[in-house]
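in:
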C-alpha cells in the first residue's frame, strides 16, 4: 500500500510537471519561433527545462530514489523525453499500460549529437583522445614568433583568443595570419576568437614614480644570492620577452658592439659599482646577468668591456618607464573616486600625522556616478579591496574601506571596479567595440561579447553584425548578476543566429554575485547551457599559477579537472603558457575516464577484487 501511494504521488507530480512544460512551450511560442531553425528544438527544450525547474522537486527525487528509479538529476538536454519515459514507467508499475509518447522530441542520443555539432561549429575539431577543447589567449609574441604558435597547436590548442582591449589591428592581423598558416601546415582547424573590450569600469592613472628599474637577484633566507637577476639589453622599441621583467634600453649602434662574455659596468643611483655579464641572444636583444642588487635610472652611464677587460664603448641608459605607483589602503581609510582624469595620489598627512587630503583616483566610466547610491558596496582589483559608498556627489564618490590586508593593500592603476548591488545603466557595445567589430567580423571566426546583461544587448550586437553581413559566431560572456538573471532570454535572442556559445567569465561574475554564491551560480549556467545545447567555456584563472609561475597550486589542478564538464576551457597568457596547455591537455584526457559532462563514469578498477586501488592504466 505504501509503495502504491508513492507511485501515485510520483505519477501525479510528473503529470503536473508535464502539463507545466506544455503550458510554457505555448506561452513562449513567439520566442521559440523566432530562433534560427537549427536551434528550434533546443529552444523548446530550454523552455521545458525552465518549466521543470519551476518546481521544487527534492521530495519527488527522494521518492524516485527509494523506488530504485532515476532521480531526473541529468534531465537537462532531453527534458520532455525523460519526463514521458518516467510517466510510462509509472503507468507500467501501476498496471496502466498506456505509453506516453510525443513525436519530434529530443532523445538522449539526439541531444548528444546536437551538442557535438554545435561545439564543432563553434570551436572546431576536437583533439585526438580529448573531447573538451582548449582556448588559449595569445600574447603579442604570437605576432612575431611562428614557432611559439606552432608549439601551442602541437600541445593541444584548439582555438586562439585575441583580446581587443590590448595591442592593435596590425598586431591582431599578424597573429591571425600566423595561426591560420601554422594550422594549415599541421592540418588543424584552429578557430580565431576575438574579445570585444566592453564597458570596462577600472581605476584611472596614478601619479607616476621615478624612472628607475630595480635589479634584484634571487636570494635565500640568509640573504645569499642563489640566482642572478636576468636583464634584457636591447634598443628601446623592441618587445620585452615574456619571461624577463627588466629591460635596459640602449642605442642600436652600441647594442651591435655587445658580444657574449662582455661586461657592462655602471654606477647605480647609490653610486654603487655594478657589473652585468652579457649572455646570448634573446629575441631582438641580449640577455644579461647581475649578481648584485642595483637601482638604475634613465641616463646612467654604461661602460662596455670585453672578456680581456679592455674598454670597447660607452653609452647611457635610454628612457625607462616610471616605477608603477600605488595607493596604500587600510580598513577605515577614505578613498575618493573622481570623475576628473587627474592622476591618483595616496593620502596626504602633515608632520603630526593629521590627514590633510584623502587618497583619490579617477575611474574609466564616470557615467556610473549617477547610478550608485549611499551604502552600496564597491570592490577593487578582483575583490582584493572592499569598500562602501558613504557620500555621492556630482563629480566624486567618498568610499570607506571595509576590507584590506592587515598590513594594508595596494590599489594600482587600471584595476577592475565592481558595483554588484548598483543598478548600472552600462552595457552593450562601446564606441571602441563598434570600431573593433568591423575588423573582427572580417578576420575572426567568433566574437566574444563582453558584459552581456540582457537580450537588448544581444540585439544591438546582431544589428551591428548585420551591417557587415558576417556569418561570425557569438560567445556571450556572462560576468554580471544581470547577465546571469537574464540568461534564458539572452540565449533565446542569441539563438536567432548560429552558432552561439557561453563563456562563464568567473572573475567578474564571482565578485558580482558574491563569493559564497558563485559556486552554485556557475553550476546553474552549465545546466542552462546543456538544456539549450549551447557549448560553454570554463574561463578565468585556469592553471594561472602554472602559466605565470611554472608551479600549479593543488586547488587549480582540481579546478582544471572539473572544467572537463564544459565544452571548452580557456587559458590566459603567461610566461609558461606552453606548459599550462600540455598540463591541461593531460588533465582533461585523464578525466574523460571518470566524468562525462555532469555524469560520473565508473571505469573498472584494476585489482579491486583484492581490495587494492590503482589508477595506473589511466596515466597519460
Amino acid at each position: 500500500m505504501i509503495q502504491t501511494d508513492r507511485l501515485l504521488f510520483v505519477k501525479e507530480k510528473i503529470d503536473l510537471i508535464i502539463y507545466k512544460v506544455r503550458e510554457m512551450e505555448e506561452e513562449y511560442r513567439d520566442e521559440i519561433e523566432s530562433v534560427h531553425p537549427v536551434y528550434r528544438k533546443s529552444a523548446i527544450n530550454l523552455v521545458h527545462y525552465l518549466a521543470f525547474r519551476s518546481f521544487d522537486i527534492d521530495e519527488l527525487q527522494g521518492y524516485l530514489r527509494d523506488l530504485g528509479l532515476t532521480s531526473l538529476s541529468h534531465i537537462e538536454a532531453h527534458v520532455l523525453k525523460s519526463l514521458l519515459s518516467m510517466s510510462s514507467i509509472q503507468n507500467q508499475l501501476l498496471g496502466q499500460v498506456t505509453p506516453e509518447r510525443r513525436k519530434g522530441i529530443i532523445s538522449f542520443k539526439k541531444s548528444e549529437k546536437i551538442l557535438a555539432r554545435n561545439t564543432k561549429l563553434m570551436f572546431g575539431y576536437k583533439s585526438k583522445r580529448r573531447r573538451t577543447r582548449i582556448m588559449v589567449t595569445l600574447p603579442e609574441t604570437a605576432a612575431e614568433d611562428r614557432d611559439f604558435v606552432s608549439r601551442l597547436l602541437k600541445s593541444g590548442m584548439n582555438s586562439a583568443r585575441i583580446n581587443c582591449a590590448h595591442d592593435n589591428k596590425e598586431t591582431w592581423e599578424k597573429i591571425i595570419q600566423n595561426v591560420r598558416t601554422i594550422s594549415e601546415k599541421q592540418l588543424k582547424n584552429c578557430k580565431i576568437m576575438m574579445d570585444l573590450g566592453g564597458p570596462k569600469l577600472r581605476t584611472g592613472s596614478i601619479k607616476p614614480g621615478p624612472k628607475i628599474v630595480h635589479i634584484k637577484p634571487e636570494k635565500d633566507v640568509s640573504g645569499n644570492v642563489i640566482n642572478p637577476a636576468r636583464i634584457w639589453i636591447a634598443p628601446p622599441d623592441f618587445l620585452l620577452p615574456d619571461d624577463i621583467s627588466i629591460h635596459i634600453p640602449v642605442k642600436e649602434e652600441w647594442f651591435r658592439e655587445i658580444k657574449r662574455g662582455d661586461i657592462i659596468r655602471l654606477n647605480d643611483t647609490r653610486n654603487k659599482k655594478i657589473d652585468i655579464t652579457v649572455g646570448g641572444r634573446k629575441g631582438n636583444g641580449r640577455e644579461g646577468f647581475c649578481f648584485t642588487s642595483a637601482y638604475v635610472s634613465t641616463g646612467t652611464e654604461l661602460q662596455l668591456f670585453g672578456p680581456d677587460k679592455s674598454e670597447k664603448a660607452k653609452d647611457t641608459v635610454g628612457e625607462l618607464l616610471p616605477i608603477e605607483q600605488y595607493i596604500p589602503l587600510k580598513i577605515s581609510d577614505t578613498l575618493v573616486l573622481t570623475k576628473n582624469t587627474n592622476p591618483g595620489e595616496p593620502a596626504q598627512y602633515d608632520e603630526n600625522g593629521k590627514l590633510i587630503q584623502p587618497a583619490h583616483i579617477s575611474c574609466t566610466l564616470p557615467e556610473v556616478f549617477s547610478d550608485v547610491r549611499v551604502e552600496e558596496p564597491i570592490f577593487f582589483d578582483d575583490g582584493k579591496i572592499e569598500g562602501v559608498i558613504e557620500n555621492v556627489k556630482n563629480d566624486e564618490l567618498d568610499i570607506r574601506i571595509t576590507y584590506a590586508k592587515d598590513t594594508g593593500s595596494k590599489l594600482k592603476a587600471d584595476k577592475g571596479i565592481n558595483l554588484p548591488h548598483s543598478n548600472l545603466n552600462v552595457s552593450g557595445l562601446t564606441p571602441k567595440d563598434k570600431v573593433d567589430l568591423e575588423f573582427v567580423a572580417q578576420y575572426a571566426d567568433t566574437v566574444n561579447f563582453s558584459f552581456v546583461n540582457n537580450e537588448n544587448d544581444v540585439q544591438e550586437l546582431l544589428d551591428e553584425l548585420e551591417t557587415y553581413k558576417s556569418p561570425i559566431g557569438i560567445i556571450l560572456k556572462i560576468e554580471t548578476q544581470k547577465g546571469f538573471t537574464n540568461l534564458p532570454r539572452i540565449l533565446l535572442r542569441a539563438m536567432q543566429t548560429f552558432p552561439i556559445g557561453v563563456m562563464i567569465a568567473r572573475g567578474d561574475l564571482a565578485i558580482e554575485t558574491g563569493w559564497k554564491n558563485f559556486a552554485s551560480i556557475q553550476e546553474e549556467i552549465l545546466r542552462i547551457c546543456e538544456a539549450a545545447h549551447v557549448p560553454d567555456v570554463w574561463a578565468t584563472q585556469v592553471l594561472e599559477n602554472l602559466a605565470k609561475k611554472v608551479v600549479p597550486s593543488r586547488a587549480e589542478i582540481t579546478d582544471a579537472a572539473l572544467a572537463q564538464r564544459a565544452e571548452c576551457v580557456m587559458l590566459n597568457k603567461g610566461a609558461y603558457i606552453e606548459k599550462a596547455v600540455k598540463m591541461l591537455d593531460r588533465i582533461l584526457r585523464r578525466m574523460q575516464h571518470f566524468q562525462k559532462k555532469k555524469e560520473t563514469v565508473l571505469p573498472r578498477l584494476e585489482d579491486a577484487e583484492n581490495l587494492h586501488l590503482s589508477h595506473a592504466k589511466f596515466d597519460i
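note: The two ends are 53 Å apart (CA to CA).
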